[in-house]
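Structure, all two chains, one model.
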Amino acid sequence: MIKAINIKDKLELIDELWTPKVIAELNGQQVKLAKIQGEFVWHDHKEEDELFYVLKGKLVMEFRDRKVDVNEGELIVVPKGEEHRPVTKEEVWILLFEPKTTKHTGEVKSDLTVDTPEEI
Amino acid sequence: MIKAINIKDKLELIDELWTPKVIAELNGQQVKLAKIQGEFVWHDHKEEDELFYVLKGKLVMEFRDRKVDVNEGELIVVPKGEEHRPVTKEEVWILLFEPKTTKHTGEVKSDLTVDTPEEI
């Protein structure tokens, strides 16, 4: 069924950090929401570019040779093969856009790894 | 170069209605911004699903058999092959996510058709 999806309503359903939830799918890509805080694991995605759009708070995207601030209302595209690690001081809410095949920790297995993100 | 893209700053660069501008690209998909007002042309995309995310205002997505309100902060995915027409009363700002190959008027040629959207 075709319907409007309310981002704020969906965010209210998320109570775990670092656990992306799928809210929409199109053309083999997924739109996900996540709440994050602290330091994620270093990883890359060999075949997939990944988009982070900051809905609330401020994210620092760390690369091996530099850091990029991504403030509320900004987005960043991390190209495939580029090692990265999202870091935040406070809780940050993000929208992700990436292929359905993308694992959020790449090939790195961590306590944070979620193999198949839940749909909400 | 990897950098943060500020949505509000990009929106300020847009002064024409119904003229999507490309702000990012990944995995063969593009992120576009557009300002729209009034009634668009009826069209579909044979092979491409299309995502509309309303940043400001209220959009009504008309289908042949129903209408769906898409309010500020909401998104809708229009499946491929589904005839649709965005309609707004006032000026509405949207973010689009769709394959690079998607033409905003589908196969319909109209005065509004933009063959190759500009990057901003």
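The beta strands of chain A are 5-6, 21-26, 29-39, 50-56, 59-63, 67-70, 74-78, 84-99.
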